[in-house]
Structures are given as structure tokens and as C-alpha cells.
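Input sequence (351 aa), recorded before submission:
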Amino acid sequence: MVILVRRKSLFRIAVFLLVIFFLTGSSLLFFVRTDMVNATEKEQDIEQDNHLIKWVDFNVTYEALDYAIKLDVKYHDSETPMSFINLLAYIAAKNGNNFKGFKTGHLDLVADQIKAGKTMEELTENLKYYDYYHESFTAALSGLVGTYEIEVQDQATQIGKKWERKYGIKAFSPFAKGYYYNDFDDFGVSRSYGFTRRHLGHDMMGSIGTPIIAVEGGTVEALGWNQYGGWRIGIRSHDTKRYYYYAHLRKDFPYNKSLKVGSAVNPGDVIGYLGRTGYSLKENVNNIRQAHLHIGLQLVFDESQKECNNEIWINIYPIIRLLYRHKSEVVKDPETKEYSRVYNIREIIEE
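Predicted structure, C-alpha cell format:
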């Protein structure tokens, strides 16, 4: 009888131990698998972060940008089309991003090879940093050129308008047609208000009330007062890669009254009016000595870069020079005192 009891006890103990082992083993296996999944996700995050562009030294000159676009437009409908972004990325990868000695002949050589049947993949096969420059320049410049339809005056009637389809520069100068400004390449110069820092934009000196134009189409992300920029507007491009920052707008009447955060704008739309607000915690204060527009261009490869300590702002000066001859014509409404564009535009997304 005693032996029977011991055997039952041993059996129960054995069953109990097996259950504990099973549960512990399952839990251990679960945690091991969880740790493996977490480790894989972390590795993927690290890999993605390592491939994320964190700095862009945009050295493309106006001369290089202008000529590359002319080649793009010239050969757009030919058997050998060539992207101006591809051409500029090739030059940057070939010459170490040094555009100081740029000559149009550098791009002509590339264009001749493409016309002779060479593909961009073949031309860039041994260029280590071509992909980096291509991604960087695509983020910075892809909103400048494309197919669009724009209203033009109907020459037959001289009173009506008609839509005309075009391929070329579809962005606009931030100053409306007929309004002039003075500027120079001031990106990176020192600023001292609040703290010593670099100027991460471009200043365009003009007259108070000058209609300010959306360079590119997109969505209004910021609208209101900023201690440094005064009344300002922030517009994000449709592909989300570019954030245009327009600052120091007019006191009392800074914006087009139809705009709000979330509003869609087209390239060439009137978005606000030049002023000299800013440098104050108090709203609607003129603390800028000379009336001017501050315009900045931020590149955003990932949303974590939008507002952080390592934002990517590039020199927009060569782009502003390019757009000098491409301005939006505007007209004033005598009742509302608001300006609006004369000729509308429709962007065409080509497959």
C-alpha cells in the first residue's frame, strides 16, 4: 500500500514537472521568437536609417541647371529623351559635385553619347555616387519641369482665353510679374537674432504689398506667426519631398484670405504679400528693417526630418535665378484688395 502511494506521488510529480517544462519551454520559445522578430525589425530600421539621405550639399549652379533643362526640353519628344536631373547627377558624380568650372560642353558630351545610343545605366555604371546625387537632385528639382496646360490669350478673338499644352518649366518666380526685387546669393551667411546661426534661405528685397507667388503646387502645411519669420506660409510639394517656406509677410494683410492649413495651391497662385514682420514673440510686429521675402527650401526624405535638429535646407538661389523669366501675371480686385493670377494652370502627371 505504501509503495502504491509513492508511485502515484511520483507519477503526479512527473506530470507536474512535464507541465511546467512545457509551459516554460513554450514561454521561452515565445520570448526567443519575439526577441528575434524585434531584432529583425531593429535591423531593418537601422538599415533604412543608414540608407536615408541626411545631408545634401546642393552646388548646382544656375548655368548648369539652365542648360540641362534646355537639353531636356529640346529632346523631350525625340527618340532619345534625356532628363535634366539625370544629366546633373551625372556631372556631379563625375566631377565630385564641383560645378564651379562648369561649361555647357560638359553636358553636350553626355547628350551626344545618349543620342548615339548609350543609356544612362551604361554611362553611370562605374560612377559610385550617381545614385546618391540622382536621389538628392530628384528631391530638390523634380517639381520644376514637366507637362502642363496653361491658359493663354486667344489670339483669334483677342478677348478670350484658351488652354495650351506645354512641356518645360512649370514653376514660377516667388515675385509676381511686373514686381521687381534685388537679391544676391546669401545662403549660409551669419544671423544673430535669438542666437548665432546660418541663414538657411534666400532674401529678396522688394516693396511692401508685392504679391508673393507659390513657386510650386502643393499643400499648405503652416500658416501663422513665427518668432523669426513673422507671418509665414509653409507649402509642401505634392510628392512631399520639398517644403517651401515664405516669411516676413505683410502686417495686417499677410495672406491670400482663401488660404488655410490644408489648402491646395497651384504653381503661380498668389499666396501672400511681401512685408517686414518678424523677430518678435508678439504677433503682427514689424521688426525687420528692410522689406523683403525670405524663401527657404527644405528637403524631406523621411517625416522624421521635417522638424528636427538636422533639417536639410538647400541653397535655392540658382532656382530663383532660373525662375526670373517665368513669372505669374496677376490682377487686383478693387473691392477685396486681393490679387489673383490672370492665367490658370493645370499640371499633367505623365505615366
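Checked by second reader. The chain has a mean pLDDT of 87.
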